[in-house]
Write a structure and sequence with these properties.
The protein is α+β, with helices and mostly antiparallel strands. The protein has 2 domains: 5-252, Serine Threonine Protein Phosphatase 5, Tetratricopeptide repeat (Alpha Horseshoe), CATH 1.25.40.290; 262-386, Immunoglobulin-like, CATH 2.60.40. Helices cover 42% and strands 20% of the residues. The protein has 17 helices and 10 strands. The protein has helices spanning 12-24, 30-38, 46-60, 65-75, 94-103, 108-118, 128-134, 136-146, 152-160, 173-177, 180-189, 195-209, 213-223, 228-237, 239-243, 247-252, 382-386, and strands at 262-269, 272-273, 278-286, 293-304, 310-322, 327-335, 338-339, 347-355, 358-367, 379-380. The strands form 3 sheets. Strands 2-9-8-4-5 form a 5-stranded mixed beta sheet, with no helix packed on it. Strand 8 and strand 9 form a beta hairpin. The longest helix has 15 residues, at 46-60.
Length: 388
Amino acid sequence: MAEPLKNSFGPDIPVIVAGMVLAVDPSFDQDRFLALSLNGYEALELTPRARQISDALAETLPADRRRALDIVTRAVGPEIKEPELTGMEGFRYLPFVFFVADHCTDHFEEAMTAQYELTKRFTAEFSIRAYLERYPDETLARLRVWATDDNVHVRRLVSESTRPRLPWASQLKGFREDPTPVLELLELLKDDDEEYVRRSVANNLNDISKDHPDLVVRTAEEWWNDGENRRRLVRHGLRTLIKQGNPGALAVLGYGTGSPTRIESVGVTPEAVNIGDSVRIVVELANPSNETAGALVDIKVHFVKSNGSTSPKVFKGGERSIQPGGSATISKLISVAQFSTRTHYPGTHVVEVQINGRLEPGGVFEIRPTDDRIPMTAIRSPQSARNT
């Protein structure tokens, strides 16, 4: 099993944070800060650990939050040189981010300066949301300026911080109801030079699609052009709608419901497997027409749950352009190993094939009954599965 993230955020983190603050504020009460930070620390997960350190900062930094924000801004280390944030080193700044979000919202200008600097070392996508809630107009105006900043991490912040459904963060209900201000920011970033920024734009668009599918389809139609970067962004932004078989989203990619492509056969092998094995699904396609036709295929597996009911999961199959009278094959290998995010149970698993938004029968496979005790060595993370 993958090592818990909190193990990379151990008791050394408060010590590092204390050292950063002490370097710019010799009067900082390091002993009290560490005592507050480390009280019951081992029992906490990563985010509660960061919030406890943040609360300790609130207790030991100056009560004048303007002074405190100035200390935080001066305490940060060197900027990230890489165009993307990788590894866990930057997480040492997470307590500072929470401090700005939870304890400093009365001081907009100083807080925005601190977040501008923090995001060049880690990310301020979590803290900016508190200011979008309290100062929506002022914060959006600042984000519009930052959308053209020279620093890639600042530009990415503009998109990532405004995601209505950002993971690990509270949802922005106002933007879920009316995403117009967000789309205006995404317009400024959709052709950014960095894939890191464009990927964030796509993720934001995907968030919006869960509440406003028609609006995202219209946006995708406007954005779609012959540029490879733009097409890749739109495809990624439409991924949830594509899995749902949304006709408008499929039409943007050129896979309308009128495509003559059809499924000739679906093979599911083997018919019965043990937990830990894999199932291969092979879809044979045909184009009986006199024109080239496209096919976008996804595989939907209805996994059996512990109570005997089922829960569907959609797997990306593939895309094909098939010549007149031609055929094509799409093959997908699906693991039934135990994952940290998905547990498998014995029973009949139904397979369906979605082609250009049409859902058609695919077949079934059985997972054989097995010992309920799952050895830890059999549990793999989704990432490890992708790497095999």
